[in-house]
């Protein structure tokens, strides 16, 4: 990656030595700590004796959910009952020896356990606490039940992910837990920033960070809020096309797959039309520039789709790539897993899960010079409570004078 | 947010004192530095004399793009020609006095300018460098042109954001620059993690971080990769419904808007059906539990949609909220801007932009105890080169022995 050989001291994960406690469940907080663990933090996940409910989701091998192999990787798991005096005491012990904590209980729940920020800061005033919730720790909707799609819906994303005025079908979900993921990413980012601040200053106190699903999605709305405020414009969904660039759309192929093509610059447009055998059409004055092509886009889209319909997506893609026309078929998981670039970059890696056997893992989404993607998967998601003995013994050792 | 009053020393933004140089344009790198700037970092954006092309995008007031008021906020802007000897020298001066740098040129471009990681580390060995690209800094696709939708398409998201087998229409875009945003977030997170590492260790050297659009999107694919590897399953899009939970879907309303309803638990289902005047149906044995409801979901969806079609979305939402049924209409920008929760949390704030006038800004997506959302918007996106004099004078001052 970098031209110079990495210095030996750089060949460590960046967050080595940072200890983070997770009081999390389902997706958002565990995703935040998964990212921190990939970065080298020592994450101790605290679960109820029966385990995080997400361990029961989706397909499993020998009772072990395959998603959890990824979702729980690089973490230590301990089981504690937060309602019991012993469980609370152990959490306080953990917190006394940690740099940070991530939680995603409903607002007020940790306080009811006697483990709210004030309680935790009484034990460790330098603790950084990141809280994730549906709507945030205050405001009129604070106590409303948060459900999966709420962030997408209320943050403005679902309204935009649609084919407007063309279908009776509802706007589809993103297909992944996008609002939880975004909130988890912001929680991780805010947490590391606050730890950076604390690290430099022996007087610094820990911070409480408030992240929520709705604001996290809303943060991606580009210039839409000022546009509404200044001009009263309300951005509407655009489907798969871009109104101001033509031809740029997603086209159906012979095998039922879709091909995304960005052919809107003058030169690329000519190459695209030559590749599909329509050079004559490309030369017509009414397609001479992007503005004119936008006016006559329906005709162009029809001609391009007529061509893509005759070929499987991968074949059409290969022809356009050769013509240097930017395009990509819509990858499904097989496409991702078998793609040579994904394999070369070790975006897809086979690792050994002691509970499951050989299993494919995705790489961490960042790579650091001197560290291979494989090094960043230190171990797979452990069984609930797998590290009880190790962690509790470690606490005793560290508590010794 | 926290129960205790914030200590005075905590009432500062967490990244105060971190200096970050941006060699960025368009979305991904500038979004990364926007988040860092919101967190308090001193971000110096280096632009070509004619400015970042994104300044010409979308609607404008007096020639100032309204999106840039948000996208460029809290940053200092300097203009430099990276092709000129003077421009390169100034970048080296900036880098000599900085903690980190973010760039999103095409792989190899900075090296051609003589400003690659080796060059920059020769000036400042502790500099953390975050690089954002379409496909990453190596691998067979490294030099392929990256376009906006590529990450969405190749990372696996566009395949899932669809109404499968029900429509001839292509899967819609997310409606925002999701892959750029995700990559920017990971770049910011990796950068702060590496700065945390460097801060604690006088011997530590800077790192090079490689983030790309495709891996960033691919990181959200949950358990789909191990599922494919173990069982050969390829996750297919599910539209707006959830196959394993019923009724949970998005329903059309009288005003053309959509209402997302999550009514799949037994108790909530009963409350939902009572609220729409169908208690009798809720009592029928074939709807007695979630598994049975999933089997007979078409009938349920039809009955619920028949009810939602009679009411504007906000009215139907109010009725279901009173019945404690989790739901949300799909917010458009007017809904967001006018919502009492958004206003109470200052997710939507009116600020003064000296170039544009009064303008609405979204809050930073994280809040820290003792810091109001308003404090986190220190200034709006400046004109290109607005800080040339200030920054270059600062460099001279700092260079004095």
Automatic annotation (TrEMBL), chains A, B:
InterPro entries: CoA-transferase_III, CoA-Trfase_fam_III, CoA-Trfase_III_dom3_sf, CoA-Trfase_III_dom_1_sf
Keywords attached to this entry: Transferase
An example molecular function term from Gene Ontology annotations: transferase activity
Signal peptide: none
Pfam families for this protein: CoA_transf_3
Residues spanning the membrane: none
Keyword field contains Metal-binding: no
Name of the protein: CoA transferase
């Amino acid at each position: 990656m970098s031209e110079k050989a990495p210095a030996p001291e750089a060949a460590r994960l960046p967050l080595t030595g940072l200890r983070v406690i997770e009081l999390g469940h389902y997706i958002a907080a565990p995703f935040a700590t998964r990212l921190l663990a990939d970065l080298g933090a020592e994450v101790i996940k605290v679960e109820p004796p029966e385990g995080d409910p997400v361990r029961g989701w989706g397909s499993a091998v020998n009772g072990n959910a395959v998603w959890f192999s990824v979702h729980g990787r690089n973490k230590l798991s301990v089981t504690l009952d937060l309602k019991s005096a012993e469980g609370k005491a152990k959490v306080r012990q953990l917190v006394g020896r940690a740099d940070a904590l991530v939680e995603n209980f409903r607002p007020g729940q940790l306080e009811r356990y006697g483990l709210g920020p004030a309680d935790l800061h009484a034990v460790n005033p330098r603790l950084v606490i990141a809280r994730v919730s549906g709507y945030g720790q205050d405001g009129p909707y604070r106590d409303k039940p948060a459900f999966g799609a709420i962030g997408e819906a209320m943050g403005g994303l679902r309204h935009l992910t649609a084919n407007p005025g063309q279908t009776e079908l509802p706007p589809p979900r993103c297909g992944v837990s996008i609002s939880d993921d975004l909130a988890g990413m912001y929680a991780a980012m805010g947490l590391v920033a606050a730890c950076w601040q604390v690290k430099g200053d022996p007087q610094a106190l820990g911070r409480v960070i408030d992240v929520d699903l709705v604001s996290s999605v809303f943060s991606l709305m580009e210039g839409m809020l000022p546009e509404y405020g200044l001009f009263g414009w309300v951005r509407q969904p655009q489907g798969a096309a871009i109104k101001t660039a033509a031809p740029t759309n997603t086209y159906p192929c012979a095998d039922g797959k879709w091909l995304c093509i960005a052919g809107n610059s003058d030169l690329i447009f000519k190459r695209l039309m030559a590749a599909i055998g329509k050079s004559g059409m490309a030369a017509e004055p009414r397609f001479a520039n992007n503005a004119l092509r936008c006016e006559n886009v329906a005709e162009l889209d029809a001609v391009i789709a007529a061509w893509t319909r005759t070929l499987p997506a991968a074949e059409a893609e290969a022809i356009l790539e050769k013509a240097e026309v930017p395009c990509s078929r819509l990858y499904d998981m097989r496409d991702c897993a078998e793609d040579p670039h994904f394999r070369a970059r070790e975006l897809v890696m086979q690792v050994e899960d002691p509970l499951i056997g050989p299993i494919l893992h995705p790489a961490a989404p960042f790579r650091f010079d001197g560290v291979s993607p494989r090094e960043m998967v230190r171990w797979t998601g452990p069984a609930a409570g797998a590290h009880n003995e190790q962690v509790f013994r470690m606490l005793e050792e560290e508590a010794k004078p």
